[in-house]
Amino acid sequence: LKEKHKILHQLLQNSTSPVDL
Amino acid sequence: PEAADLRALARHLYEAYLKYFPLTKAKARAILSGKTGDNATFVIHDMKSLMEGEQFLNCRQIPIQEHHISGQGPTNAVELRFFHSCQSRSAEAVREVTEFAKSIPGFTDLDLNDQVTLLKYGVIEVLIIMMAPLMNKDGTLISYGQIFMTREFLKSLRKPFCQMMEPKFEFSVKFNTLELDDSDMALFLAVIILSGDRPGLLNVKPIEQLQETVLHALELQLKLNHPDSLQLFAKLLQKMTDLRQIVTDHVHLLQLLKKTEVDMCLHPLLQEIMKDLY
Questions:
Q1: Which residues from chain B sit within 8 angstroms of residue A21, using beta carbons?
Q2: Taking a C-beta distance cutoff of 8 angstroms, is the pair B196, B92 a contact?
Q3: Which of B75, B100, B102, B137 keeps 20 to 30 A from B186, CA to CA?
């Protein structure tokens, strides 16, 4: 599941700034 | 749990809500009722005002889409261009909802796969609930409250774009009669996120336990904040059923768009969420 949802996974693991999106 | 603990949880979630969601219901209602003291809200009511209003819109787009769209005639491209700026804002909103979810006590201790599943299935429901405070029967605030777009204009777009927002207006107008405030909304959003019946969850029990605590906090909050509103808690829970149908229809519309619009390219984050969803 994590593999198929890399961005969601990344958002959960880090604080992603708006620029990264 | 003790009432004091439930109140502390309500306060904590309200603070997180204020931290991560820039346009609160209080602010949106002030703008909609003209009580902000300025007349800065730009109204989009036709194609001309849409073109004029585009500079206000969050227009960060994937370059390849920009290239594709600029090759089209302006009348055909305008819906797609607007749709792309909606997608950018939605992706940003997903990030805000994720940060809010992470602030729910116990959420980040859940299995990481389950955190992904809860967000995948919960985030569109949360976004639709969060649209309600921005809407009235005549239109909706967009672009962080800088623009008011009329319902009639959205209905006038070509098919299937014209079908996207009308169900949300119908839902929101009814939802707004419950008169929740931002502190109620914070708890309700947490309840939605912590739904133990999402497909593919690995470990349901801790999710249900977390949800039960937030449900207690919501019930107490509504009793204290709306003492005269009978059955508000039950009415609110009923909305969760309506919400699932709206999301299912929304996803089907997006799938239709993907098939019919050659130049439509879904934002990668939204693609992840939509894939294999319902």
A1: 91-92, 95, 269
A2: no
A3: B137
Which of A2, A7, A12 faces B269 most closely, judged by CB atoms?
Answer: A7
* Complex ipTM: 0.83
A11 at B interface, C-beta within 8 A: yes
Structure confidence by residue, pLDDT tens digits, B50-84: 988 877 765 444 333 343 444 444 455 777 788 88
Q: In this predicted model, what pLDDT tens digit does every residue of B258-274 receive, in sequence order?
A: 888 777 788 999 999 98
Name the residue among B244, B238, B248 with its Cα closest to residue B277.
B248
Are B92 and A18 inside 8 Å of each other by CB? yes
Alpha-carbon dihedral sign for residues B114, B115, B116, B121: positive
Dihedral angle, C-alpha B196, B200, B205, B208, nearest 10 °: -10
CA distance B141 to B150: 9
Q: Which residues pair with B147 in a beta bridge?
A: B42, B142
